[in-house]
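Teaching assistant here, posting this on the class forum so everyone can see the example we discussed in section. The complex has two components, and the goal was to see what a joint structure prediction looks like when all of them are supplied at once.
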Amino acid sequence: MDCGTALGKIIAKADGLLPREEAAELARHLAGCPSCASEDAAISATGPALRALTGIRAMEKAPALDAMWTRVRAGIEEGRETRRRSSWIARWAWIPAAVALAVAAVLFYPAGTDRSPFHPSSFDVAVEDVESDVATVALVDKGEDLPRVIWIIEDAKT
Amino acid sequence: MPRRKPRARFVGPTLPFLALLLLALLAAVPSEAADTVAVDVGAVYASNEGTSIDPALGTIRGKLRSMFNYTSYRMLDRKRRSLPVGETWEFELPGRRTMRATPLPAQGDKVRLSIQISDGPKNLLTTTLGLRRGGMVLVGGPSHEAGVLILLISAE
């Protein structure tokens, strides 16, 4: 194995991608080549160094990350609270709408469906004129406490 | 982007509606009291089929029994409308007859009504009535099924 091939295998080993039989072959080369052995040592040390560096940076950033998480949690809580409040409002918001609708119905509903019983306060009626083209019309007055009646007699029926 | 508060989202559409309703109320009350007449017409089928008297006839039930010889009184239809003086209301009566009611100018608590009842092209009745507000007059006689129609006409 030449040193160029060995360098490629050293990098593959550092990445954990070197098959076992090739690793053995590389080990034999490294045992006889101090230059490649030195390169292997340097590259192999890079991984732990990077991990250590990442750990240090993470520790440095920990307070900022904690603060960010606090804000995220607060945001989530606020969202929940908003949903709770909006659902409470949604539950009761129909009341004013229903009241308004009921009043509108009373005001604007066609009065033809009024089914309250008749309770006239007076039967005092003046018939100013009365006529018919096809029937005989009779006025019936049976007294103050009874309604006046206009009776239409069609086709000489009584 | 600022979010709209939920309360505003629900109350927002309701408030203009309530305001509109209040305006309608305020507009409706004086006109109802001033120059309008509430005309109420009940079409009663009087016959000798059975002995029932419709409870919807209220205090008129006893008077109908004492005035006519029919044994059954059933309200077939009832219509009510508030009309300004001079406006004609035309509606159908049972048996394809039509009725036209027009409030006429009157003084005090009196109401004057012009009534016209037609059977197709035939004029069955044309009359002008003067009533107290809350008063009632009966118009009867047109045949209907096995009996007659009696119209209870009241005005407030």
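For the discussion questions: The longest strand of chain A covers residues 125-131. The two ends of chain A are 134 Å apart (CA to CA). Think about how each of these relates to the inputs above.
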